[in-house]
Amino acid sequence: MTDVYCALVHYPVRAKDGSTVTTAVTNLDVHDIARLARTFELRGYFIVTPIEAQRQLVERILAHWRDGGGKKRIPNRADALSRVRVVDTIEAAAEVIAQEARGTQEPGTAPRRIATAARSSGRELGSYAAEAKLLAAEGPPALLLFGTGHGLADSVLDEADTLLPPIAGRGDYNHLSVRAAAAITVDRLLGDRNSAE
Amino acid sequence: MTDVYCALVHYPVRAKDGSTVTTAVTNLDVHDIARLARTFELRGYFIVTPIEAQRQLVERILAHWRDGGGKKRIPNRADALSRVRVVDTIEAAAEVIAQEARGTQEPGTAPRRIATAARSSGRELGSYAAEAKLLAAEGPPALLLFGTGHGLADSVLDEADTLLPPIAGRGDYNHLSVRAAAAITVDRLLGDRNSAE
Description:
2 copies of one chain form a homodimer.
Chain A: E1 4-9, E2 13-14, E3 20-21, H1 27-39, E4 44-48, H2 52-66, H3 69-73, H4 75-81, E5 84-87, H5 90-99, E6 112-115, H6 128-136, E7 142-147, H7 154-159, E8 162-163, H8 178-190, H9 193-196
Parallel strand pairs in A: 1-4, 1-7, 4-5, 6-7, 6-8
Antiparallel strand pairs in A: 2-3
Helix pairs in contact in A: 1-4, 1-8, 6-8
């Protein structure tokens, strides 16, 4: 089984007008996606922001759960948050992952980057089924990339090894929260198909 | 295609110790699940709370998006929130749904209640595949029930027509946020299997 990681990217992401911006970290994104990552046994969840004050903020939240009052109050939350790491760039996350390569993977093996987007961009798309199959087998580690704001910047999509299709609902409305989109994506890729079907 | 609704239940739900409590409404649950409901074309999203002050709070939030500044700023959010309704009991939601029966359904047709739970309770479980098939066909309306706190009270599970299996990740950790659990459940039941597979 492949080691899977995810990253919530706060830069570079798109603003409403298509320009590239940095978004603010929100506490709830840290918690919700950490719980998701723990449930589906992702090996790590990276919060990506170039803003040092924001990285410090997340580290303070994590310390509360690692060593502070949070752990006593809700131990399972502390467990989930123990997988969270804070980095300044996607590249830094990829480097950490490469260092953690284990099993059949050579140390230094770069992760395959799997990008997600809510909008169609004309790029070639992978499929959830093909990715799920790859992740169920032994292979290089995988890094799932989720964008905040109005989605990952084009440069991130361009550098990804795979771009997953937008999550289609029943109509043409497509404005899920990143928390919901991450949950659906991870379930499609790693969920127990026996319970799902 | 069946008319599907969902409800986020703040009473009766379980506390950590198994007792029955009322939880507080959170703004983010209103938004995230409204966006999910809109994406998957649910016909309505009910916030269920017996506390009048909480119902008024949600109505104020909705008014901001229906008539206030929110609609101008983020029209698609206003669109999603237009499906939200606030009721005091699950029964009241079921009555509204019965009044809205259309198509091949007789007016007054009560919805099938589909409950969700993160814990195993020894009750007989439905399956996502069987439910997805039912919902894809013409049938009585369906009401998906999601619990806040530590999940729907036993009385709600007992009165449901179907209880879906807990969402299994890769291990035994099972503490998704209700926002993530709702997203995964709705995708398993109504998601475009062509894009998912």
